């Protein structure tokens, strides 16, 4: 009997957790009130992140979001929406057509630290000077369908983490080393990713790796520049 009650309680807690997970909406065209749908969408990503909890999804419509983005553990952040999709039409989003762009506020880059089960999918991240585009530290996470471009201090820095990157582009970033991606003490997989036009003033124009395990499948690295290892620095 006790075992049955335990199982029943576990099922109740599991279903309750699913029921409480929510989707929040962000659009420049929303009224900025509740984020509950496109009409009432928040106008900034920051508003949605403040209202979110682990397990939630945030859908972001096309537009340029010039703001600080304090990411939340366990929250899936999806860009590339037109801003008209129904709740069951997530598959209709198109990041290549509907650009959800995060632009530097000169305050901070998108930072992941100590997160698990966190997703960043469908964004263009650009113009972060002196900080780099994205920082990942001590995380297990997924990054997909993102364009990380024209950032100083590198496109992405990954340290002490396990990260899967799919369908991402690292374009025209600059740094002292690992201009497209800098990877240290991490396990990282790249699938169908492009590194192009990245410039390092020392080593690793496209990719700089140190004490790491890196897997690349169907990736293109071209036209990257560095004093040492224009494509890779291993």
Radius of gyration in whole Å, from Cα?
19 Å
Individual helix count: 2
Query: What pattern of helices and strands is seen along the backbone?
Result: HEHEEEEEEEEEEEEEEEEEEEEEE
Strand order of the largest sheet: 1-2-4-7-10-13-17-21
- Overall strand count: 23
Largest sheet: 8 strands, parallel
Secondary structure topology:
Elements: H1 2-20, E1 23-26, H2 45-51, E2 57-61, E3 63-66, E4 76-81, E5 100-103, E6 111-113, E7 116-121, E8 124-126, E9 134-137, E10 140-144, E11 147-149, E12 156-159, E13 162-166, E14 169-171, E15 174-177, E16 181-184, E17 187-191, E18 194-196, E19 199-203, E20 207-210, E21 213-217, E22 220-222, E23 232-233
Parallel strand pairs: 1-2, 2-4, 3-5, 4-7, 5-8, 6-9, 7-10, 8-11, 9-12, 10-13, 11-14, 12-16, 13-17, 14-18, 15-19, 16-20, 17-21, 18-22, 20-23
How would you describe the overall organization of this protein?
With 234 residues, the chain is mainly β. It has helices spanning 2-20, 45-51; strands spanning 23-26, 57-61, 63-66, 76-81, 100-103, 111-113, 116-121, 124-126, 134-137, 140-144, 147-149, 156-159, 162-166, 169-171, 174-177, 181-184, 187-191, 194-196, 199-203, 207-210, 213-217, 220-222, 232-233. It is elongated, with a radius of gyration of 19 Å. The model is unreliable at 1-18 (pLDDT under 50). Strand 1 (23-26), helix 2 (45-51) and strand 2 (57-61) form a beta-alpha-beta unit.
């Amino acid at each position: 009997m006790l075992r049955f009650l335990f199982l029943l309680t576990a099922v109740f807690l599991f279903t309750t957790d699913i029921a409480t997970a929510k989707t929040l909406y962000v659009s420049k065209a929303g009224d900025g009130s509740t984020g509950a749908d496109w009409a009432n969408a928040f106008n900034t990503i920051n508003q949605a992140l403040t209202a979110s909890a682990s397990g939630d999804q945030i859908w972001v419509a096309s537009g340029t979001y010039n703001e600080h983005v304090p990411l939340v553990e366990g929250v899936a952040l999806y860009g590339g929406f037109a801003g008209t999709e129904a709740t069951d039409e997530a598959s209709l989003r198109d990041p290549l057509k509907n650009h959800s762009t995060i632009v530097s506020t000169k305050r901070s880059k998108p930072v992941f630290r100590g997160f698990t089960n966190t997703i960043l999918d469908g964004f263009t991240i650009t113009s972060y000077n002196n900080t780099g585009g994205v920082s990942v530290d001590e995380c297990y996470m997924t990054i997909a369908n993102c364009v990380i471009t024209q950032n100083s201090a590198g496109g992405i820095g990954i340290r002490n983490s396990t990260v899967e990157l799919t369908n991402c582009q690292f374009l025209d970033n600059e740094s002292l080393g690992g201009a497209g991606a800098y990877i240290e003490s991490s396990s990282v997989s790249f699938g169908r990713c492009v590194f192009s036009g990245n410039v390092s003033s020392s080593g690793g124009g496209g990719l700089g790796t140190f004490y790491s395990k890196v897997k690349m499948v169907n990736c293109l690295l071209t036209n990257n520049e560095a004093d040492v290892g224009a494509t890779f620095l291993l």
